[in-house]
Amino acid sequence: MKINLTSIWLLSTLSILNVATSLTATVYAQEEGNVTDSEEPMKFFAIQHAQSGSISETNSTAYSLELNDVSDKTILFSDRPERIVTSISTADFIGNWTNGPNSFALDAPNAVLVVDEQGIQDNAIVDLFNPIYDLDKKTLKYEVTPDNATSINISTKFGQVTSFIDTGSNQGVVAEMIALGGNR
Q1: The pLDDT of residue 73
Q2: Residue 24 resides in a domain
Q3: How many C-alpha atoms does 146 have within 13 Å on its Cβ side?
Q4: What is the pLDDT, as a whole number, of residue 51?
Q5: Residue 31 burial (C-beta neighbours within 10 Å; 0-12, 13-18, 19+)
Q6: How far apart are CA 50 and CA 66, in angstroms?
Q7: Is the previous residue joined to 81 through a cis bond, with omega within 30 degrees of 0?
Q8: Are 114 and 121 in contact (CB under 8 A)?
Q9: Domain count, the chain
C-alpha cells in the first residue's frame, strides 16, 4: 500500500486538531450513554499551573504560597468510570471556593505542588486555604499547611509549578462549577 505525502500531512493535521480540541472541550473517554449504577458523585481533580512561585513561613504550622503568571484556566478531570475532562476559568474556580454546604472553605482540599527549580523537580503535599486570585496581575495566593503537619521542604522561590488538587468531599461544588462555567 502506498501512502503519499498529502495523506501523511492530512493525518498529522487531524491528529493535532484532535489533541487541541481535547484540551479545550469536554471529552468523554467512554460512550456518553455508558452510565454506572453507582449513587456516589463523580470525583473530580483540578490542575492549576503557574510560571513561578514562592512560599514563606507565616508561623510554625502555616505558610503563604504565591503563584505568579497563573494560567487563566483550571483543568478539571474526573475519576473512573466517566473520565470527563473540562476546564473553567481560574476566577470561577476560586470565586466558588466558599459556595455550598460542602465548600472548600469548610473542607479544605489537599494538593500536591510539583515545583521545578533549575531543572530539578520537587514536591510537597499541602492543604489549601483562603485563596486570593488577582486576574490583572495573574497571581494566586493560598494559605497552606503541610499535609503531614510538619514542614514544607521545597525551595522558597521556584520556577514552574503545577498544583494537583484533590477536591475530596466537595464534589457537589465542583459539579456546580462545571455546570456554571465549564469550557469558558
Answers
A1: 96
A2: no
A3: 16
A4: 97
A5: exposed
A6: 10
A7: yes
A8: yes
A9: 1
pLDDT of residue 169: 64
The owner of cell 482540599 is 109
From CA 14, how far away is CA 174, in angstroms rounded?
32
The answer to the question of residue 36 being in a domain is no
For residue 44, what pLDDT is reported?
Answer: 85
pLDDT < 70: residue spans in the chain? 1-41, 149-151, 169-184
Q: Does pTM surpass 0.70?
A: yes
Please state, in angstroms and rounded to a whole number, the distance separating the CA atoms of residues 115 and 40: 33
| 107 inside domain | yes
> Which residues on adjacent β-strands are paired with residue 55?
65
pLDDT at 17: 32
Phi and psi at residue 94, in whole multiples of 5°? -70, -35
Q: Rounded to whole angstroms, how far apart are CA atoms 41 and 102?
A: 13
Asked whether the beta carbons of 176 and 100 are under 8 A apart, the reply is: yes
For residues 6 and 20, what is the distance between their CA atoms, to the nearest angstrom?
Answer: 21
For 142, the grid coordinates are 493560598
Residue 154: name the closest of 181, 110, 123, 108 by CA.
123
Name the residue range of residue 153's domain. Answer: 42-181
Instruction: Give the E-state strand segments of 9-138 in sequence order.
Output: 27-28, 44-57, 63-70, 73-78, 84-89, 110-117, 120-134
Q: Answer yes or no: is 133 within a domain.
A: yes
The phi and psi torsions of 96 (rounded to 5 degrees) equal: -100, 10
